[in-house]
Amino acid sequence: MDEFIPYRLSVTSNLVSDTIARTYRSLFGLSIPEWRVVAVVAETGGMSQGAIGGRTRMDKVTVSRAAIALVERGLLAREGKPGDRRSHLLKLTAAGEELYRAIAPKALDLERRIFESFGMAELDGFVAMLRRIEAVTLALGEGTPREG
Fold first, then answer.
1. Distance (Å, whole) CA 46 – CA 78
2. Is the pLDDT of residue 147 over 70?
3. How far apart are CA 146 and CA 133, in angstroms?
4. What range does the domain containing 24 cover?
5. Which strands make up the sheet holding 76-81, listed edge to edge?
6. What are the backbone dihedrals phi and psi of residue 144, each rounded to the nearest 5 degrees, phi first?
7. Is residue 78 part of a domain?
8. Whole-model pTM?
9. Of 63, 13, 23, whose CA–CA distance to 41 is shortest?
10. What are the backbone angles phi and psi of residue 42, rounded to the nearest 5°?
């Protein structure tokens, strides 16, 4: 298994996520799904739960639980979407925006600490490869393999 690339990706991803989760939980009381929802909503200005799930690849239940927790904490608000009575737009409250402004620099610092031993060319290549893996995997899931 140690040489099986999907296994290596999973182990490494879990390790990075667990490290980040401990930081966010201890400093801000947020789970990884909650942080992802906050970040996506902050970066887009507002999104539906379905769109957040599609963008983050989190399942509906995980997004829903994170959104409920964030609404209960007063960090997120639900607004009706014009023309769609079943869907709501999630937006950050003032407290949510303040939290995002506090977390974002810490997230960037943690990213820097994890990847500081790599050169820019290595990181650029790594990100490009991740994007290609994502595209090919999505295409495989659709039944229409594409080259990256």
1. 9
2. no
3. 11
4. 5-101
5. 47-48, 84-92, 76-81
6. -130, 85
7. yes
8. 0.78
9. 63
10. -65, -40
